[in-house]
Structure prediction request, 497 residues.
Amino acid sequence: MTKMSKAPPKADGEAKMSKPSLYADRVQVYPRAVRGPARTFKWAVLTFCLTVYYLVPWIRWDRGPGQPGQAVLLDIGHERFHFFNVEFWPQDIYYLTGALILGAVSLFLVTSLVGRAWCGYACPQTVWTDLFMLIERMVQGDRNARMRRDQAPLSFDKIWRKTATHAAWLGVAFWTGGAWIMYYADAPTVTVEFWQGTASTPVYVFTFLFTATTYLLAGWAREQVCTYMCPWPRFQASMLDEHSLIVTYEAWRGEPRGHGKRAADAPRKLDAPALGDCIDCKACVNVCPTGIDIRDGVQLECINCGLCVDACNEMMEKTGQPKWLIKWDTFAHQEARAAGNHEPYHLLRPRTLIYVSALVLGFVIMGVAMANRAEIDLAIQRDRAPLFVTVRDGSLRNAYTVKISNKTHEAADFALSMKGVESAEMTVAEEGEGRMPILMLTVEPDSVGTFRVLVFGRPAHLVEGSQDLAFIARNTLTGEQKTYNSVFMGPGARATH
Ligand code: SF4
Ligand code: SF4
Prediction:
């Protein structure tokens, strides 16, 4: 657990009154390089994540003339989110909500199965910190060299290596910040504009912001982000149980720890304490990116990266002892093994089944919704002042603002009709055309057409001054239609309708 700072010794009376400080100075962590399956897998995930992040904005996608040619583009100016063949409008926000919910439930499922695998392998903080540590190691050497240099007085060697490290970090941070901007603007265009000095101010501001954030979080803050800034470690405990796979130390096998030869290697003195498998080499502590000792038990700081597993296996191989003194295991399995029993792994448990069911349901709902996604949208707002007007021929007139979204890439004619008020007719206010039961309205491709429509009618069934009126907009080319339920107002109407 997070350690509390040690206060200097106090006089007796003062010591009784004093409380431990809740603030602890940061202890610099110098992780050592390690090799093994966990490290290899971590490199693979890092390479995959960075490749996807940096390259995706450069993927081109032909959507036809006048349309953006970038496969993934968050076009905030035009209120569109392009994701390959799919285009999201602001009205489609519930798809984003659905995707976020699915992401959260997936994370719950992964955590309940394999602990903080997300934190240890795929979280952006972990990925970029790992990359920054790699740069640091390449320029300044491994753990011991870095520790020696940090404690040594200022020298040319120290200055150039530190400067080179920070310069490389800033370079990567700038590349990262710049790549982020490319998700919001056409990548080739914004790159040219950036270097010509003609890009918009937000482009420079956000590039600077993301550069600074990456540099500070991955270069300086590192494990402090996971331990103090991220809320996830606080509530991930609620997703774990005794059957979740986490990185554990086999204390029943490793203790008592100590240096020296084991019974298998050399005859032990009869009065000497029997040693466990842990040779107390601290390799597991030295490779840990958060600087903790897994032998102390499960800790909030542990991101389940498994580097201590690799380090310990390496030592066990060297000393000729069985591997996996530190391993991914469950509490239930560990307890059973300590008692010499066997406990099977339980992947299918009530909580994992609930998460899987929620995921399947969520994917089905999202899939059906996406498959039936409309390329037309209709929104109608009725005038509230005046609620209605009585015209010369005795009929009543209501005014509406009609918005038709044409999500196709071609101009479309929409037939706007009504249902609910018998013999009702309408006209577009500004056009001065005669009244008609159906209006033909043209909407430009990939845009919203806004029309002020006047409806004339003699409603026969007014209830408290209003009668239901439904508008139907139909794309005359595709036949797709959308209905919007509104009301028609007359005498006796209240403004609350
Ligand atoms: S204790 Fe092991 S698994 Fe946990 S963060 Fe440290 S190295 Fe990674
Ligand atoms: S690496 Fe293994 S043997 Fe070395 S201290 Fe850690 S647990 Fe013990």
